[in-house]
Amino acid sequence: MSEREYLCAMDFGKRTIAALLVLACGFAYSHSLAQGSIACDVLRFQSQETGFLEVHVDFESRSFHALQTDEGWRTRVQIEAVVESSEGIVNYGKTNIEGPLGTDSLAALDGRQFHLERIAVPTGIFNVAVTLRDASGVGTFEETTTIPIEFLETDAPRFSDPFIVEAFAPSADGEPTNLTRSGYEMLPLVQAALSTEASKLQFYTELYRVNEVVDSLFLVQCWLETDEGTIIPSTRRFFRKEAAPVLPVFTSIPLVDVQETQRARLVVQALTRNNELITENSLPLQFIAPSSNMGLAEFGSVLPAYIEGFTDSLTLVQHIRDHHPKADASQRKTIDGFITEASVSQMQAFLAYFWEQQSPDDPEAGWRAYTTAIAYADSAYGACRQGHGAETDMGYIYLRYGPPNTIVKRHNETDYYPYEIWHYHRAGPFTNKRFLFFSPHMVNECFTLLHSDMLGEVSNTDWLQILRSRENRLRVTSSQLNRLNPRRDTFSGEEPEDLFFNPR
Predict the structure, then answer these.
(1) Residue 45, CA distances (Å) to 28, 122, 126, 388 in order
(2) Are 216 and 202 in contact (CB under 8 A)?
(3) What's the Cα-to-Cα distance from 489 to each of 70, 406, 408, 475, 486, rounded to whole Å?
(4) DSSP per position, 110-176
(5) DSSP string spanning 358-409?
(6) Is the pLDDT at 400 greater than 90, yes or no?
(7) Burial class (CB in 10 A: 0-12, 13-18, 19+), 452
(8) Exposed, middle or buried by CB within 10 Å (0-12, 13-18, 19+), for 10?
């Protein structure tokens, strides 16, 4: 960290240690090492010319050795970040930083330091190896952590990885630093954990290429939601923005109604004037009591035991593909576009981080529960896909949203293709959602998702017409129909529609 960056950080006030926990978010990646002394995030940004990673490193001075100088005592630390693909080193950054001056060695080792390393990268899947080593010439401390990350090429608008702003101040004219954004010096809060005593949350993100889909004003909205997907109403904020190639978003959200919440998720969306979703991103949050003695979870470079067993490349690829339904948008793109090109170690790291994000309290328990669900999906729905249930529409929806609350099966109708309607009381953050599957060829095939009222899933306004367009309809009498199924209006043209909107 430069002297000016450090002085700016010190003006914000001394950083508290207890409010840090390991969290990995949908787009940003977090890690920690050395039993809570060091925390690291890797976030993705882009300019109009290139993409780049920001490595945010927060560490305790006491991990290093303090040297006496003519001015006082201080630490010297070398921070190295190496971005590597399966083909070799892509780019790297290395910086030597000096800690704040102390009147004695104890004072020099008190508190935390922050460093931001910015590294240009192409699109691809990478491991980012972050190494901190004592550069005092006396101490021997050195730690390395490797963080998997992908940077996807897209021609659609998207948000950068958001980060929490611990503190900010107006920047000095003509003297920008790595902390400078939109006229402010912003100090990121590494690993997105806040004190339960915080009264507001400040965050920063950037929206790219929105001017290519809207030509004037559009809407940005943000909120906090619980683990169960329930929006906390008092946190919802709306902003009218003018379209631009790069649009900074820096705002705050009150936390008056979240003091009892242990975990939440920050969601930010861009929408058109017609309330159509353009893009969104999210960030998991942790709220920690200031008196908490919880430290940063240790992961280091050692894989969890439940991941170590995956050493066969083909088995690992299929297992990760089976995670596609559970993944967020960024992770799905990684699975679709890059996972088959990754090494075994990269895929193992991806899987480990996936479950650190999905189930931070007990990643192994989350993984085991999902593995059981995969086995069920394979058995129940995978016969038509060589046993791979996740690759069927029914298996995919089952793994993504869990078992439905009710299922209507109509496999032997005469006027319609065979179909099923699945109804969920809750699917993700939404309530009362339906999925209609049908079998258009009626020959031992997978049922296909024809229509759903779930945001982001297949939505087909002609679903009823398609469902009743079955060829070679059987010519049967009304009495025969009644014997086949005695329900009232069994084969009326309104039955599937009635069942869809009034599930039972």
Answers:
(1) 10, 12, 15, 36
(2) no
(3) 94, 21, 16, 17, 9
(4) SSEEEEEEEEEE-SEEEEEEEEEEE-SSS---EEEEEEEEEE---SS-EEPPPEEEEEEEEPPTT--
(5) H-SS-HHHHHHHHHHHHHHHHHHHGGGGTT-GGGSHHHHHHHHH-S-SEEEE
(6) yes
(7) buried
(8) middle
User: Tens of pLDDT along 452-496?
Assistant: 988 778 888 889 889 888 754 443 333 333 334 444 444 444 588
Query: Would you list the DSSP string of 427-469?
Result: ETTEEEEEEEEE-SS-SS---EEEEE-STTS---TTHHHHHT-
Run of H or E residues at 30: strand 29-33
pLDDT digits (tens, 9 = 90+) for 229-284: 889 999 999 999 999 999 999 999 998 777 566 788 999 999 999 899 999 999 99
* Average pLDDT, integer, range 168-180: 82
Q: Is 239 helix (H, G, I), strand (E, B) or coil?
A: strand
CATH class of 3-288: mainly beta
Rounded CA-CA distance 484/504 in Å is: 20
**H-helix or E-strand containing 335?**
helix 329-337
What is the residue whose two structure tokens read 């003018």? 242
**DSSP-derived pairing of the beta strands 263-271 and 217-225:** antiparallel
Lookup: tokens for 108: 């020099």
Distances (CA, A) of 371 to 198, 319, 334, 392, 440: 38, 9, 20, 16, 30
Its pTM stands at: 0.56
Percent of the chain with pLDDT over 70: 83
Question: Strand pairing of 193-195 and 277-288?
Answer: parallel
Asked if 128 and 42 touch (Cβ cutoff 8 Å), the reply is yes
How long, in residues, is the chain? 504
pLDDT of 305: 86
